[in-house]
Write a structure and sequence with these properties.
CATH class of chain A: Alpha Beta
Number of helices of chain A: 14
Largest interface: A-B, 70 and 70 residues
Number of strands of chain A: 8
CATH topology of chain A: TIM Barrel
Oligomer: homodimer
Radius of gyration of chain A: 19 Å
Order of helices and strands of chain A: HEHHEHHEHEHEHHEHEHEHHH
Structural class of chain A: alpha/beta
Strand order of the largest sheet of chain A: 1-2-3-4-5-6-7-8
Number of domains of chain A: 1
Strand content of chain A: 5-15%
Amino acid sequence: MASHFADRLCDAVKTKKTSLIVGLDPIYSRLPPAITSHRQMNDEFDVAAAVDAIFDFCTQTMRIVGPMVPAVKINIAFFEKYLWDGIEAYYALITEADDLGLEVIGDVKRGDIGHTAEFYASAHLENPELVGLEDTLAPDAITINGYTGIDGIEPFADVADRQGKGVFVLVRTSNPSAAEIQDFTDANGQTMYEKIAEIVGQIANKPERIGKSGYSNIGMVVGGTAPEVTTALRRKYDKVWFLVPGYGSQGATAADCVRFCKPDGTGALINASRSIIYAYEKPQYKSQFGDDWKRCIEQAVIDAKVDLASAMQTLI
Amino acid sequence: MASHFADRLCDAVKTKKTSLIVGLDPIYSRLPPAITSHRQMNDEFDVAAAVDAIFDFCTQTMRIVGPMVPAVKINIAFFEKYLWDGIEAYYALITEADDLGLEVIGDVKRGDIGHTAEFYASAHLENPELVGLEDTLAPDAITINGYTGIDGIEPFADVADRQGKGVFVLVRTSNPSAAEIQDFTDANGQTMYEKIAEIVGQIANKPERIGKSGYSNIGMVVGGTAPEVTTALRRKYDKVWFLVPGYGSQGATAADCVRFCKPDGTGALINASRSIIYAYEKPQYKSQFGDDWKRCIEQAVIDAKVDLASAMQTLI
């Protein structure tokens, strides 16, 4: 863990030969019947049963995808719904992912200033050195919101540095209403997201943050659904990893997303969540593999990797 | 709870005759020795001991301030540091505050889009209807980050509406580096924070969101340290409650903060955290009350109320 986060990412992406990562957004009502029909997991309105089901689903999914992708992104919102039991499951999943050799991105989108930011950073990036939590790990990296400026980003970056971990700051999101705020433009033609990217770039480019791979441990979240912004950001911030949501269910194509990668395939993590973890809902997989939900997920990962690899070929 | 959040706030502010609210940012190393010398609470690095100490401190503090202020703001970052045990304590404190008749603002600064925002909203605003969590309450209102635009705000507003609760969206924060992003200005002279205020205003001003008091359940977080922005926002968004951080330790004066209030004293919640809850560290109180930390906190609340009331007199 003392190694550099960006270097670990590079190794993982090269080893798994893909920039695809899998996002875990577990929703009880969409879990495979094979899990929710289990006697102890068949009650959506019972916290213990629901959390057990979600944990089981995520663990099994990570075992399937683990050998094929460099990282998983765990979305904490889906665990916070179950309050403290959900949070315990979230951290337990991080340990499971670590055991599988996966890099783990905690998609927590925290953001605040001063002391509060330090406490969030400690909670979400620091492996706890607390009696009662000895075996607990924090994620390898988290997502944060940079609306409060440098004061709100540096406390996270500092903890990440000390722990060999990383931070991805929201720059341009993939939702329809993002433009109204993030494309807000000043008199010189600079947009809000470009301004935030500039601030993140300054933090990321500090020499002590650059690993052997040439990348920083501080990255940016930029949606794949806004491909027009991609090439400029990739060129301007050549030491930065991009975390790219929106591939698959949110509508970004492989061609849109691979623009964030460098020719060697590093530099971007392209996340697919629902299109992978709920693959068993899709007729194309259902018709092929029936109730074998794990085989559906496996095939969806294979297909997504091929899709991205083909798009990379076209790009190069 | 079916009542309108803004109406409850109005009643509470009028009953307690102040816009002052107390923020709970508990840091173990700053707790009064009377608590941390307790045999079972004297280990900062033991999760159970530390959480017990923090919970005890916050509960006792709320009992002191409860009769004097309309609301408390509980900052979840200071609980997340203790992972799931911390989260359990956070929710337990909400119940304690509710028993004391206090409105509770969960300072969680969540923000995301689509499904994720819905899950955050459910976790943080919906009283859980889950077996195993029957007696658990969510806060009366939470803070959120609006950088993703309307898509990221409306899911929270919708849950708040259904639950008789409220949302405060970050508009202008009180930290030094906020200006770089939030005062980013377009060609027409509109700033980023004014743009976000405009979006929040549209959401807040929907007639179905306005209570009998004339206020909306959707409000704005605007720091007291930027008084030049205050009067304009107060005038423009007359149906909105402002949550004002920065009074006390962060440097905003009473005169700066009361500009957010209407002449009848409603319309703003002025938060003081460290200047109240750590009052026993201050020479002015220590010399007067010695080790009686509770008396120090009580006096700090009295003093802050007088300070704000005097400033209000000057304003009117």
